[in-house]
Amino acid sequence: MRGAGGGANLLALRSHNTALVLDLLRTAGTEGISRLELADRTGLTPQAVSKITARLREEGLAAEAGRRASTGGKPRTVLRLVPEAGHAVGVHLDRDELRAVLADLDGTVVARRHAALDLGAGAEAVLGRVAAVVGELGAEAAEAAGAAGAARTAGAAGAAGGRSLLGVGVALPGPLDHRRGVLHRVTGFPEWDGFPLRDTLAERLGGVPVVVDKDTNAVALGLAVGGEGGSFAYLHLGTGLGAGLVVGGSVHRGPRTGAGEFGHQVVQLDGPPCGCGDRGCVEALCLAAVARGETGEAARVLGTGAANLVGLLDIDRVLVGGRTVEGAPGVFLGGVRGVLEARARRTGEECVGVGLVSGESRVAEGAAQLVLAPVFGQDG
Q1: Bridge partners for 251 per DSSP
Q2: How far apart are CA 134 and CA 284, in angstroms?
């Protein structure tokens, strides 16, 4: 991440030990947790915990939550997280629309935006729209933090660079380089190939830290942070098709951050051409079936791809979502489940679970977690 705004300064405070303390403060909720309990659960010395919590209180991220009776000696002061003291903006750039959310430190969405978008309109038009939305939501973040007594003067970055805005997460169709924030050839939009989205947007926002990832990875991260355990695949069927993979509790991006290009596995050698340049891809077959009104066939194709993933990765659960799935959730759930059950009968294995992920802003909410999760020691 880059940027010189107040959000960057907050992120710079995040040592591993600070992240441990912040995560415990968050999970303690409004009841709070004492410094002694923090030391016990983190393995840190009481002196180290005192230094960390003093800094967090100075930054407005932690506050006293009262006193608790002690087994001996004076009552213990308990501390809590101040959720409204920090925010992240999550942006979902789809091929034809933009969705954005403002989330506080708890991940609670406090504001939303939705607008039509043409991803093919060019970088200047797209980034201008994103910057405008981030500016609006950043102003709301500063207002919320000000009400909590944690806002600071914005400085050169303007309202979007205020102390309360930790950063902006942007999620969009892949493939892309998550580490460098550089896009590759988005199917149907070759003009974005090689575009340094992260650095260009951060500069446009006056130094606010920016994180870029695939839409599917963002949702997978949001699910993992929200309590979805084990190893699972999230299959997103909207204007395209991709997968977010969580293996051993962590999002699997691969050494070149290219994992999850699920939609471009070939399942029919002589199949219809795909926008990626190949033929017979799962994405091409799914979208063609949807266009013909054959939703059941699209679900069967999606299930075939899911069965390949289950056989390859031995995952615990398959979750499906996205705009197209939400148009006929029962059909897609039943179709995918039917293919996986047939596979389980052939192999003699237990059938993996299948579930639906709903919500129009799921990708944007996951994009906010690209910023928030590392603050609490999650997502690597």
Answers
A1: 246
A2: 33
Report how far residue 223's alpha carbon sits from residue 232's, in angstroms, rounded to the nearest whole number.
10
Instruction: Report the SS3 class of residue 190.
Output: helix
296 has pLDDT over 60: yes
Q: Determine the Cα–Cα distance for residues 285 and 301; give it in Å rounded to an integer.
A: 7
pLDDT in tens, 38-58: 999 999 999 999 999 999 999
State the Cα–Cα distance between residues 272 and 282, nearest whole angstrom: 10
Place of tokens 């460098």: 180
Task: Report how far Cα 308 is from the mean position of its chain's Cα atoms.
Answer: 25
What does the pLDDT average to over 66-86?
82
Contacts of 293 (CB under 8 A, 6+ apart): none
Rounded (10°) angle between helices 295-313 and 329-347: 40
Would the pLDDT of 161 be above 60? no
Contact between 214 and 370 (Cβ < 8 Å): no
Distance CA 371, CA 96 (A): 24
DSSP helix/strand/coil, 281:
strand
Distance of alpha carbon 78 from alpha carbon 35, whole angstroms: 7
Is the pTM for the entire model greater than 0.85? yes
Cα 49 to Cα 46: distance, rounded to the nearest angstrom: 5
**By C-alpha distance, which of 257, 180, 245, 249 is closest to 216?**
245
Beta bridge partners of 237: 241
Q: Which amino acid is at 355?
A: G
Decide the pairing of beta strands 87-93 and 97-104.
Answer: antiparallel
3-state helix, strand, coil in the chain (%, to 5): 45, 25, 30
Q: Where are the beta strands (DSSP E) in the chain?
A: 33-34, 62-68, 76-81, 87-93, 97-104, 109-116, 165-172, 176-177, 182-183, 210-214, 232-237, 241-247, 250-251, 317-321, 353-357
Query: Is the backbone peptide bond immediately before 175 cis, with ω within 30 degrees of 0?
Result: yes
CB of 107 closer than 8 Å to CB of 27 = no
Contact assessment for residue 358 and residue 149, using Cβ atoms and an 8 Å cutoff: no
Which one, of 106, 321, 104, lies nearest residue 232 by Cα? 321
